[in-house]
Design brief:
Distance between the termini: 21 Å
Strand content: under 5%
Structural class: mainly alpha
Number of helices: 10
Largest sheet: none
Helix content: over 70%
Shape: globular
Order of helices and strands: HHHHHHHHHH
Number of strands: 0
Mean pLDDT: 89
Length: 270
């Protein structure tokens, strides 16, 4: 990522998003359904409902995540300083927090669309008309989304490359083996640790009328009362599978796609 400029990193992120978004959409549906106590289904018409909003969300947020994370790392290295290990995590977490400002409203539309079966445009119009664009409407659930993405992206773009480098240096693991196990570590850590925030966000965004779930703190308290801490882990299996696969795809793309992107944008190697 450090060898690409901000626009190229954004393009890299968008490429990763489209690939993983199409492949992993069913796991995202199952995760949302489990968190909201909806019935399990393998009907592709339901699994891929809201795919456009999902791809828009993934492409937008990954462009921001990759752009900010790569930009911070590149600027530190351009100053001639060696990159401290904490910087990788801090840069990735900052990228995640910024991306949440975009991702949270899009995810709200997607969650409402999956519940109603309406188009993305119709759902967006209904949400803004009934609840507005503020904290009670389109931006509902933004707080837990920011915390979730700080942890999740920290695992994907921060922890994963650190673990991969450690496995290669200390244990002389091949690039493929190191990349796979680093993705598992980064994906599981990012997925499990960020999951309680995702559950709170999903429940808030699925209940715009606040009939069951109110504010961030009220929703957390309600979920704990419903089933203890285990309630905050509903859907963790599907989400961890989704994130681990996403981290693997992202890590492989970060390792292998930059030369091709530079060739397209700068003509290098042509």
């Amino acid at each position: 990522m450090e060898t690409l400029n901000d626009a190229e990193n954004a393009a890299l992120g968008a490429s990763v998003a489209v690939l993983e978004g199409v492949l992993l959409q069913p796991t995202l549906y199952w995760k949302n359904a489990m968190q909201q106590a909806l019935p399990f289904t393998i009907d592709p018409r339901k699994l891929y409902r809201g795919l456009f909003a999902s791809l828009l969300n993934e492409a937008g947020q990954m462009s921001i995540q990759f752009g900010i994370t790569g930009g911070v790392k590149r600027r530190v290295r351009s100053d001639g300083a060696s990159e401290p290990r904490w910087l990788s995590l801090a840069a990735a977490s900052a990228g995640g927090m910024a991306a949440a400002l975009f991702a949270s409203p899009v995810e709200l539309v997607m969650i409402q669309q999956q519940r109603s079966g309406e188009s993305a445009h119709t759902t967006l119009r209904a949400v803004t008309h009934a609840h507005g664009v503020g904290a009670r409407g389109l931006c509902r659930g933004l707080g837990p989304a920011v915390l979730r993405d700080a942890v999740y992206v920290g695992g994907m773009l921060g922890l994963t490359p650190l673990v991969q480098a450690m496995l290669a240096e200390r244990y002389e693991a091949s690039a493929g083996v190191a990349g796979f196990w680093a993705s598992v570590v980064g994906g599981v850590a990012g997925g499990v640790l960020s999951h309680p925030f995702d559950v709170v966000k999903t429940c808030m965004q699925g209940d715009l009328g606040c009939a069951r779930y109110g504010s961030f703190t009220a929703t957390t308290a309600r979920l704990l009362a419903e089933g203890g801490f285990a309630r905050l882990l509903h859907g963790v299996t599907w989400r961890t599978i989704n994130i681990t696969a996403t981290v693997y795809i992202a890590n492989e793309c970060c390792c292998k796609l930059p030369p091709y992107i530079r060739r397209l944008t700068r003509g290098e190697g042509s």
